[in-house]
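Re-run requested by the PI after the first attempt was lost when the workstation crashed. Everything re-entered from the original request form. Ligand of interest: inosine-5'-diphosphate.
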Amino acid sequence: MEKTLVILKPGTIQRGMIGKVISRFEEKGLQLAGMKMVWLTDELLSEHYGHLKEKPFFQQVKDSMRVCPVIVCCWEGVEAIQVVRSMAGTTNSRNAAPGTIRGDYSMSVQENIIHTSDSPETAESELKRFFDEKEIYDYSLKNRSSIYAEDEL
Ligand code: IDP
Ligand code: MG
């Protein structure tokens, strides 16, 4: 099954939304494979947001991720990468569709509540960036047959 990275950004922690955001993924039927709280470094954020390094807001975005610790999660499921990405909604929260996490809980481009991996390649490299191998747990929810048909697994 696919695994993807979600980061609950400082805005989620500051606004007391941790439980709400995690509930969205649980209620969808995704399985939590790893989770921890971590205070990110500028160095690690330079890697994570490397695709933005030429943008004028690069340092500002990195600093916004270091206001307080974040919560990094690994969620697992069939096609989890695109499922989680679509649950997050568009980068600009003001354009994000109602019903998405950004659409329901945020008003900003930068302060958009969560990070989600955008492809299988980035999911793999991002999970390696934020987790040691032993921090990702291999188990099966006992109600998996209520979440998926047999031929989907
Ligand atoms: P994504 O998080 O939807 O994948 P990316 O383009 O990868 O969006 O950008 C990473 C993060 O950088 C965004 O989630 C947002 O916090 C921030 N960001 C992106 N574009 C802007 C901008 O134009 N102004 C300020 N912050 C931005
Ligand atoms: Mg991105």
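Saved to the shared folder this time. The radius of gyration is 15 Å.
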